[in-house]
Amino acid sequence: MARLLQFGLLVVLPSGKPLEAQMRKAVESSTFAKRDVFAKIFLVVIQRVKSASVTVDSELISSIGKGLLVFAGVGKDDTEKEAETLVNKVLKAKFWPDENGAQWKKNVQDIEGEVLCVSQFTLFGKMKKGNKPDFHEAADATTARKLYDYFYNKMKVTYVPDRVKNGVFQAMMDVELKNDGPVGVNYRSEDAAVTIEIDTNLPKKEPKEPKQDQNGKKGKSKDGDDDAETGRTFEFTIPPELLA
Question: Which cellular component, as a GO term, is one annotated location (predicted)?
């Protein structure tokens, strides 16, 4: 993560008083590995469909009727926690109207629909520089397969196994869909708020050698209290909109 103050946050102690200057300096100098938040991005694109299918080498692999087509990509350092977050989000996403025609009231479980999962690492493609997609934020094949399989199997056991279908990992697939709407939403596991622990204690300084007076006596060091704590450890939550 970038330095905390780059988020434009004013960190406040539980007492309600703003951090003193030295504590603010401690917070600003505290760095958090970028991968701890931004690289843990399990990404899905959810399509509401009337039907969808996956074919590989002219062979039909899977097909569904009314339900969701879910393209899923695994990011570096993703864990099973991110996968579980997205499984719950997919199954609870309200994409259908209710019996009275009110929109966005029912999820795929409510309508007893089906789910077709398709792995897609290219969701992490970026073209900030040049015209060639850069996929460096995607997980390596071994990690991606393990977590994608976990995602798919978790989807099956959380919902109804017979209603959850799969594509073929790392295969060149022909994916056909009849989009209903069209309706499509992308969701990232990082869209959940992140709680961070901050230690505001300043690093200890090396004690300064006391100066001698005219009689050769050494005075007291000005840094005699350097071992005392100047801050505390506390937690706060960064909302998802600041993590985009």
Answer: cytoplasm
